[in-house]
Amino acid sequence: MGHDNVTFRTNYFTFRCTISVNCTRYFIVDIGSEIIRIVFKRNIDSNIQNLSPRDIAMWKVYVDLIRKAQEAGEMSIKMDAESTVEAIIYLVNGIGITWCNKMGDFDYVNECRRMIEFIL
Predict the structure, then answer these.
(1) What is the pTM of this model?
(2) How many CA atoms lie less than 13 Å away from 28 in the CB half-sphere?
(3) Are 67 and 79 in contact (CB under 8 A)?
């Protein structure tokens, strides 16, 4: 039974990561760097807290996802789930700003995936 539970968590983790990547691909890449640049600028100029990791709408979902993956032994990272998610959000925001600055001149999703895999 324990093995089935780990399999479920692995599938859940993979499923959630796939959804997140697909959403990112739509909301960032398909919309385009110019629109995302406007969104970043609006968030900064209006002091909207969407760029602050602990204030994003998906904070709890991401923390729970990382925590479950850690409990299932899927991740060897020693940081607690909250710090891990915080690092990932900062990383993704930084890559997003760089992507906008370079006018979408590199594969945003693959670069995020590559850097997240490096952290995890």
Answers:
(1) 0.68
(2) 25
(3) no
d(CA 51, CA 55): 8
Find the radius of gyration of the CA atoms of the chain.
Answer: 15
Beta-carbon count within 10 A of 53 CB: 19
Tell me the C-alpha distance between 42 and 7, whole Å: 42
CB atoms within 10 A of CB 84: 22
pLDDT tens string, the chain, 120 residues long: the values are 333 333 334 454 555 555 565 555 555 666 677 777 777 777 777 766 667 888 888 889 889 988 888 888 887 788 999 999 999 889 888 988 898 888 888 888 888 888 888 877
